[in-house]
Amino acid sequence: MRIRDLMNMNVVTVLPTMMLKEAAVILNNAGTDKALVVDDDGKLIGFISQRGFIKAVAISKIEDLCVQDIMTNRVVPLLYTKSVSELKEEFTLNQCPFFPVVDGENRPIGILHQNDVVTYLSDRSLLLVEETQAIIQSLYNGVTAVNAEGIVTLFNAAAEFITGLTADAVIGHHVDHVLPNTRLSRVLETGETEVNQQQTIANCTIITTRSPIFNGNKVIGAVAVFQNITELQTVAVELENVKNLKSTLESAIESFFEGIVIVDRSGKITMINQSYCDFLGVERERVIGLHVVDVIPNTRMHVVAQDGKAEITEIQRINDHNCVVTRIPIVKDGETVGAVGKVVFKDVKDLKILSNKLNKLEFELEYYKEELRKAYGGKYTFDSIIGTSEKMQWMKSIAMKAAKGNSTVLILGESGTGKEVFAQSIHNGSIRNNGPFIKVNCAALPENLLETELFGYDEGAFTGAKKGGKPGKFELANRGTIFLDEIGDMPISMQVKLLRVLQEREFERVGGTKTIKLDLRVIAATNRDLTKMIEKGEFRQDLYYRLDIISLAIPPLRERTEDIPALCDMLLKKINKRVQHDVEGIAAATLKLLMAYKWPGNVRELENVLERALNLMDDHEVLIAPEHLPPIVKKVNKESEPIEVSDNLAGMLDDTEKQAILKVLEEAGGNKSKAAKILGIHRSGFYQKLQKHNIK
């Protein structure tokens, strides 16, 4: 602030020769009690005041006096360019109520009163105090101050936040009473600064610096500046994490076999690994900070760093090599801040070699997948289902729809109708076709082994258990399909456990405690009437409802005789592969007999009849003739009595055998193994007779 900004520009000037009475009139009209006296050139030579007029009246008549008679010659002019801060010395040396302000030629241009300066300095001091308070209140660090008596005079907002105390509760009280651990009292006593001291205030650990406040050589107070140490520790941990992350990133980039380079937005290299340096034939220390175009030939890294558009697997010529490179922009907060480049292949030849290796591996993978599918999957597809009859086409369409889902399928039909063919076709037509297809014949497994076969067992589950345990059929079928054939012959006790597995889709091995989750499809099949078995209590109704979500009833061969010619063609091709005799087909008379027969054994019986015929044919024969068929097939067109008597006798023998088996089963309580022992035949032979007479 300059003097000219504070001075009063209302200046009254008089000449030294002017009569006092005239000067008095001028001062009265100007409303002032003083005037500056100037010479003829307008330069300051003194001043007159009210006091001079009073003195003049007292010593003589005013009419006889002029200005120079009462003028004060001792005047201290101030140059208008001086600053207010320079007035301290003038005010101290010259006890004047006002000071004339002059220009560079000592001509008066204003008057500066001490009161004006005092008012200005007072306002300025108040403003500085307010600014200082605002700064202290806005500081992130806590600040507290005390006077010479230890009374708290300052406690800013950050101090309130850190300590949990309010300024109203602290200011005006002795520091040892409200903040007993600040040690500001000790600073007042010693007058020494204490730097970076750790202490606890109001359950808060801080780092503080305590300093005395001096006025000359006298301590008039103390101030403490402090910060929550927890925040510093957090910042330190974050910095350490950043350093570790940077070190890890550098190590990772350095470990890459491929060349890696990183540039900033201006295209200058900020990081490059040794692999890239070796490929370029440069030293890393010399290229860091250089523009990428000066280091890497034909690069576009600087372009990607500017436009933010990635360039994937581009061809770039580097040192006589056609390289495959990728350039990716680095984006932060939606803005491209740089780019990272990678040499994917140092030469296109490497790409071709890798492509050949991948093609070979894909071929091997497909080969092993196919072998695995053959070993654990099904060999039949919907193309394997032969038949143009309406019933078969309808069943096939339903099965193809079922294959698209994951629901349980129940296949019903007589023995030999192709239930397993349908099951495998559904599996191979589903999304699980790459998973295993596991078949379980529920009728062929003894009751005491069925549980371990289905669910497996853990080591030590029973005497003789295999070391390490054994997975069951359900576990092997995970992510595939399990085919439960002859489900109608499953014991009631196992039906309960199977129901739980179907509901929960989980199980435990025998003797195990670990629950195994299942992700598979269940297909069940039977040649028995499950509804009648439910009425007799031989099959659980709740299990039936769980299985009978999608039901397929495969028609017997006698209900679709129009499919026999096509079936014969397919079966002959199949039999020719294992029988050393090629045939061209079937004679018309033979086909007539085949279509007239009732086929109780269905397609399986038809295959057996055709295989028997091929084995009985002479080498020169190429067509299956009627004489190659078994008598049971040929008898349908023969009505001679001997044949009929013979047939009746055979029927009587079959009935007798059937009745004997039923009686023994009744005596054995339904135990098939016990019944086989009573009859003195092998168990497998007994099962064949049960199947022959359709005894369940």
Explain what you see.
- The chain is α/β, with parallel strands linked by helices and 696 residues long.
- The protein folds into six domains: 3-120, CBS-domain (Roll), CATH 3.10.580; 139-233, Beta-Lactamase (2-Layer Sandwich), CATH 3.30.450; 256-345, 2-Layer Sandwich (Beta-Lactamase), CATH 3.30.450.20; 377-547, 3-Layer(aba) Sandwich (Rossmann fold); 556-638, Helicase, Ruva Protein, domain 3; 639-696, Arc Repressor Mutant, subunit A (Orthogonal Bundle), CATH 1.10.10.
- Helices cover 44% and strands 21% of the residues.
- It has 29 helices and 27 strands.
- It has a five-stranded antiparallel beta sheet with strand order 8-7-11-10-9. A five-stranded antiparallel beta sheet has the order 13-12-16-15-14, with helices on both faces. It has a five-stranded parallel beta sheet with strand order 18-21-24-17-25.
- Strand 9 and strand 10 (204-215) form a beta hairpin.
- Helix 27 (641-667) crosses helix 28.
- It starts with a helix and ends with a helix.
- The model is unreliable at 639-647 (pLDDT under 50).
- Residues 128-183, 245-289 form the PAS domain.
- One of its GO terms (biological process) is regulation of DNA-templated transcription.
